[in-house]
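Exercise 7. Predict the joint structure of the components listed below.
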Amino acid sequence: MIWKRKHILDIESLSREEISHILHTAKPMKEVLLRPLKKLPTLRGKSVLHLFYEASTRTRTSFETAGKILGADTGSIAVAQSSVSKGESLLDTAKTLAAMQVDLVVIRHTSAGAAAFLSEHLKIGIINAGDGQHAHPTQALLDMFTLQENLGDLAGKKIVIVGDILHSRVARSNVCGLTKMGAEVTLVGPPTLLPPELKVLGARLSHVLDTELPGADAVMALRLQLERQQSGLFPSLREYSRLYGLSGQRLEKTGKKTLVLHPGPMNRGVEITSELANSHYAKIEEQVTNGVAVRMALIYLLVGGTNNVMA
Amino acid sequence: MERIAKSTIMDANGIRRILTRIAHEIIEKNKGTKDVVLIGIRRRGVTLAKRLQQLICEFEGVKLPMGILDITLYRDDLRTIDVQPVVQETAVPFSVQGKQVILVDDVLFTGRTARAALDATMDLGRPQRIQLAVLIDRGHRELPIRADYVGKNLPTSRRESVSVCLREADDSEEVVLMDKPGCLISWNCPLNVLQQDD
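Solution:
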């Protein structure tokens, strides 16, 4: 496959071949990441800037680590202390960065479509690190990489995603990517947190976790966005945890060695018990390691060549 | 446009004899097999390193550690090359610290792949010594690099290309000199000629 893409905006626009190519490239990147001397000369002289309008620990650090290992110069804009607080528009901020000859901008924004908007107006490469409730493609890719490493080919594998689907861009991107790779995805959550439109993406929907667990190869717990608990979308945390929280006992219902994933940050004791999160079923730290490898692959693919022309 | 095979430089027997000689030379030069490790450079170098490992095992009864090196991330032409090369895995399952590393490749040409391989090896640790073994040295060096073990010195013109076909990866087992009309597609061993570097 010849890579031509200049931006990573969502999973929808990626073909199955492109997803496979990214996951294939992430493998050698992981080998480099696990070396004692983890530094490459590959992207010497290239620069990657992180423009984060939303809070983030792992995504931003992961991108920065990935860029640095590849030899690129990386920087971050703390939006609160930048000209954004003086009222500068997103486009003007991004244009300023492009004028400084930055090669790649990684953006996280509260509005869906922010990354796509920038890609239309700027000549430099853009990676979407999360835009509103729309997409979080790099998280989905690292989840797919982790699942593939543990389960092999994803075709026909049964994946259950449980939790606050409504607010989750991680769920949307994962459904899209996993179904493209041939997996069977079931979304589980209370009716108020599970919009019926998601059927369009090719996932099954269910309100009862216990009936969906038998046969599941992996269960992905999503963070319950506690800040939204006031809005009356479910009666109480305790009830939510009893119906949709993952525990070791509940996991036994799958009848096989099921993987547990969580994109983080976790609310221990709400969507997942502490005991399960610390067990060997949980691949949560592996997801973080793989996140750096997948982002190294993406940065290499986007700015490592001369011929990236496709939006 | 296709490449035209001008002449067969070496057949299966020729390749076998040369590898047998290089295997003996490696043992001789390193006074045995102590601390010697083989690292094949993708793609053809890996096949050749495996064969050397087997031959040395036959002669000395010792199976040398063998690793695989992918030099893509160390190339000096990533900024100018048209088609972005696919990164493959480097798999060196042992420490190179203090070892006698033998890098193995099929053709030594400009020396740029060997340069990249040296850097890639150094990033894995600090070997005692690095040596280079190649099946064909076709000249036209662009860097001050030479091989320690050479199968055959083959004077070529820059317009020509050397195609090494090994039965593990190709249909045939031979070394062929080809005319290069500036096209990368060959009917004989299409995988090999994509490796435009050394």
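Discussion. The longest helix of chain B spans residues 12-29.
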